[in-house]
Every structure is written in C-alpha cells, then in structure tokens.
Amino acid sequence: MKWGGKGKQEEKGKQEKKDKQEKKERGKKGTLLRLGGYLMHYKWYLAAALLLTVGSNLFALIGPMLSGYAVDAIEPGPGRVIFSRVFYYAAWMAVFYVVSSVFSYLLQVLMITISRKVVYRMRRDVFEKLLSLPVGYFDVHQSGDIISRISYDIDTVNASLSDDVVQLLTTVITVSGAFVMMVLISPRLVLVFAFTMPLSICITRYLTGKTRPLFRERSAKLGELNGFVEEMVSGQKTLRAYCQEDHTIDRFEEKNEKAMKAYYRAEYYGSIVGPMVNFVNNLSLSLISVFGAVLYLFGSMSIGNISSFVLYSRKFSGPINEAANIISDLQSSIAAAERIFRLLDEPEEPVDAPDSMELKQAEGDVELSHVKFGYNSVKTIIHDLSFHVKPGKMIAVVGPTGAGKTTLINLLMRFYDIQDGSICVDGMNVSRITRESLRKSYAMVLQDTWLFQGSIYENLAYGSLGGMEQKMEVERVREAAEAAGIDGFIRRLPQGYDTILTDEGTNISKGQKQLLTIARAMLLPARMLILDEATSNVDTRTEMKIQEAMRKLMEGKTCFIIAHRLSTIQNADIILVVNDGDVVQQGTHEELIRQDGLYRQMYLAQFE
User: Fold this and answer.
1) Residue 301 falls inside a structural domain
2) In this structure, are 209 and 180 located in the same domain?
3) Which of 23-32, 289-298, 347-356 has the lowest mean pLDDT?
4) Does one domain contain both 302 and 374?
5) Distance (Å, rounded) from C-alpha 35 to C-alpha 157?
6) Residue 469: is its pLDDT beyond 50?
7) Which residue ranges does the record assign to the ABC transporter domain (predicted)?
8) Residue 507 sits in which domain range?
9) pTM summary value
10) Whole-angstrom Cα distance, residue 293 to residue 507?
11) In 10 A of CB 153, how many CB atoms?
12) DSSP code of 13?
C-alpha cells in the first residue's frame, strides 16, 4: 500500500508537470496568434512585405547558380578561358544582387512602418485598457510595473517585429529555395543534411525550452525594479527626512542585482544557441567539401556545381544560424507580449446593468442600508453600515485609522461594489444607476493632490464642461480660485492663470496644490461633494477661510467630509463616528461631546 501510494504520487506529479508544460505551450501559441491578429490589421502591408521578401531572396538565390556557370566557363589549359562568358554571368550576378538589395531595403522600410503601426495600436489598446480597469487593480499593482509594460515591453515587441520577423521570413524563403537548388544540383550530396539538420533542430528545441522561462523572469524582475524606483522617486522627501538613503540604496542594490542576474541568465543561455547551431553548420560544410571532392573524382559533379552547392549550403545554413541567434530576442519579445496580453485580459470594471438609468440633477439624498463590504473574501471591512443623509447637509465621517472611512468613499463613488445591503441616491439603488452619471454627481477632492502638466486655468477647468475643447469663462475660474483663497497667489505668478505647472518648474507648495484641487471641485456642476482629508495640507487660518467659502458655495448640496482634525468639522450638520466598519455614533458636535463615547475621546485627545 505504501509503495502504491508513492507510485500514485509520482504519477500525479508527472501529470501535473505535463499539464503545466502543455499550458505554457498553449500560452505561447496564444501569444503568437494574438500578435498575428495585430499584424493582420495591416494585411496589405504584410502582403507587400511578403512579395518583397520573396523577390529579394529569389534574386539572391540566382547568384550561386550563375557563379557555378562562370566557374565551369573556365576550362583547363592556356588560352582556354572564355572571358566573355565569365563576364556575362558575372554581370548578371551583379544585376540580380543589386535588385535583391533594393528589395531588401524596401522591405526593411515597410516592416518598420508595420511595426510602428502595430505598436501604436497596441500601446493605445493598453492605455485604453488601463482606463477601463477597476480602481482595485491599481491598488494591488505597482505603478512602475504597469509603466514597464506600456513602455519597455511594448518597445521589446516593436524591435522584434521590425527586425526578427524579417529575419524569419528571409530564413524560410532562403532555406527553402537553397534546398530546392541543392537537390537539383546533387541529390546525393544533400544527404549530408539528413544528419546535421536533426542535430541542429534538437539542440535548438532543447535550448529554447530552457531559456523561455528565463526571459519571463527577466521581464518580471525588470518590472519589479521599475516599480521600486518609481516608489522611491515619488517618496524622496520622506526618504530623506528619515535618513533612509543608505538603506534604500541597499534595497535597490538587491533588486538591481536580481534583475541583472535574471537578465544575465536569459542572455547567457540564449546566446548558446547561435554558436551551437553555427558549429553544426560548419560541420555540414566540412562534410560537403569531403563528399563533393569524392563525387568530382568519380566524375559525378563538376567544379562549378560543387562551387554552387557550397554557396547554396551557406545560404541554407546561414539563415538557420542567424535565426538561432535571434531566438533569445524572440523569447524576450514573447515574454514581453505575454505580460502585455495578461494586462489586456484583466477583467474590466463591470458594465452597467441593462436597465441602468442616468442620474440627472441629483438632489443629494443618500441612504446606506445594512451595507457589508470587504476587499477580499477573508476580511470584512464594513459589517453592517446604515445611515441616511438628507439633501444639502454637511456630513462628516470620523474615526480611527482603518475604521473604514476611505472605504466608505470608494463605495459611494462605486469604485467598488458592495457585497450586501444597498446604497441609494435620491431613492435609486446605485446598482441601477450608470457609473458615469453617478460619479458626475459628485465632486471629489483627495488628500493626494493630482495636477497635470498644463496651465493653472486648464487644471482648474478640468472636467467642468466635458472636455478641454470647451472653454470656461475665466471669471468663473477666478471666482472659484478666490473662494478657495488661491486667487491672490495665482495673480502673483509670472503668467497668472496661464502659468504652466510642471514638476521642476513653478514652485507651488503642497498646500497650494490642494487649494487648486479644491477650487477645481467647486467648478464642477455636482450636487454632492466628497472631501477626503482635503484640508490636511492647509494651515489652520487658510482652512477656516476655506470652510466658510465652502459652506457658501455648497449651499443646498450634500457634502461628505472625511477628517482626522476634528476642528474642521465642528459645523457639520451630522457627524458619523465610524469604528470597525460600523457607525457607532452620530449627531452634531455638541451632541457627541455630551456623550461619553469614541468621539469625545478623540476630541479630548486632540485638544488636551
């Protein structure tokens, strides 16, 4: 029984290994088919490339035959050389080689054009895919790794399409044509390749099977390295404030070394293929020379035929050797394409239900009833959350870190869908409201400011009227900036509202950036506002002015405020105290202070 169980385990292990290998092979074939699908968008370009490839290689294949004729025109003995025939064949050789070179040049230009179009389409598809992915995808994937896929991986595919595809087409046509010509010259001498070709194929298959996982690992390690660098670059101030330069360098060295080793292993083992195949090809040339000489001695071949056969053998084995040399590049591009297609295959944000309706002119009545939510099936963040917010009220959400405050905002915006319960806006369940119309009903300001490279005016008017092609009145923008307390600062800039914001250009503090995002939110025609720690980077005096301006501008609108600093939400109509995913207290500031609860403890901790 013991031995039988062990045998079954080994059999199961072998089957799992076989299934895994078959899955990898299917994945590789699927990747190649999908790349072919991109190429087929430009089938007429491909047809022209195929014709140029055939023409270039056929003209090049005529040369060795004419060379043999020229050699045979040289007869032994003085005065027996017929130079006119030699020059005749040589002239035609030059013509054919020139035409072949012209076709080859046109082919290269055409393939660069095709690869440029394919990469443009692929990069566009990846970027559009990123915009259709749920927010949860970006919460669990490093920005650097995503950027690596849209830049490095696509560039790797681009290089392969523009160079390697041409080489493969050339190899197929040249090898086929050279083989036919060798058979016509001497079928017996072709038998040499019956020994060398299987040997070359076995070596190539074995080595490529070993190197393919190494190139996958290389792309993955490079993505990890890019992700780490992106994190460290964006966190420079924190890094230096905590004096973590040496530790960060050590971590970078570790990740850089892993990426370097992965790169070295892939390139090292990939580079073995070329020399091994080249050795086999040189072996075949040696055998052809020996057996060709024997056939010549027995009068079965002329010197010209031997010369032509040797040239054709080089054309036969040369492209195979070159193809073997680009195996590493192909493996790298396939690994890169797999990473790209894995991103393209990620599930998109669920589409709206067929019976979904648009939320037009929302009043701001929000009700959560017995909401349950967790980011995964293991841990539930919100257990049983219920509250009702009437239109035009200012709602503050407070609580300790990890209580579920930001999660609540994610649910209101439908960045995530709840697992149980319901969320209603104006009496409509949000699951029956289109995401676009729901999100347009909110104006949102986050703690992490986001401004793009462009003028201050463009940043403030961003999204207000559905596109930058529509111009918003400058006076409206100035009114919002003045209400946010940032107008005076903007006017003091060199170009005022036309000043271009760049990372290394205008010196704008984090607090001023936050004021700009608040002014931007004021311009949105939304009836509900979300402020997620929006005043955390603003000094207390400016904060009070913003609160006064916000109350005037948001009159009649529902406003959700998440704040740790309780001084900013004392005037809120309702304060919801959230702890462990549940509302444990609710009421006005005065009401909650009179109660001996969590809110009073938090307030005393801040002001005593």
Assistant:
1) yes
2) yes
3) 23-32
4) no
5) 9
6) no
7) 366-605
8) 452-525
9) 0.67
10) 81
11) 24
12) H
